[in-house]
């Protein structure tokens, strides 16, 4: 197997404030900004919020894909992440809790649990990186849709 490369470019937008524009290798642009007490103007998500939301997106993607492959009639998947960070620099994530809300018809809870476990232990690159500093926990609920 070859090495998989991923690239992006992050540019500061100028002398006033702390807004940055990131362009992904796939051609998408995302803005980031800092908190007002750090020179930012709160115009966009913080970089660490982007790390957290990227981790949520990575694992939600896995869960939906695994449930579909398991034959589950999934209609919606939401994951709410709550986190704690270290008090001193580097302010890494120390705890992240993932709460999944899976909606569908006849969804089997044991398959949701299995999908989350597979994502966190085998497939989700972001979770595996984050777990180097953070305690990862999860919970879920299944919502029946008729």
TrEMBL record:
InterPro entries: KH_dom-like_a/b, OsmC/Ohr_fam, OsmC/Ohrsf. It comes from the Bacteria. Pfam families: OsmC. NCBIfam families: PRK10738.1. This is OsmC family protein.
């Amino acid at each position: 197997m070859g090495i998989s490369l991923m690239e992006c470019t992050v540019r500061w937008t100028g002398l006033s404030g702390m807004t940055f524009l990131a362009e992904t290798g796939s051609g998408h642009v995302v803005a980031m900004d800092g908190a007002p007490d750090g020179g930012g103007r709160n115009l966009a998500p913080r970089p660490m919020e982007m790390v957290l939301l990227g981790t949520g997106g990575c694992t939600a993607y896995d869960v939906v894909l695994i449930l579909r492959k398991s034959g589950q009639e999934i209609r919606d998947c939401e994951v709410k992440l709550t986190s704690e960070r270290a008090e001193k620099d580097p302010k890494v994530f120390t705890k992240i809790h993932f709460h999944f809300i899976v909606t569908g018809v006849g969804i089997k809870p044991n398959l949701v649990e299995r999908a989350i476990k597979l994502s966190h232990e085998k497939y989700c690159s972001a979770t595996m990186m984050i777990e180097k500093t953070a305690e990862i926990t999860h919970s879920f609920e299944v919502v029946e849709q008729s």
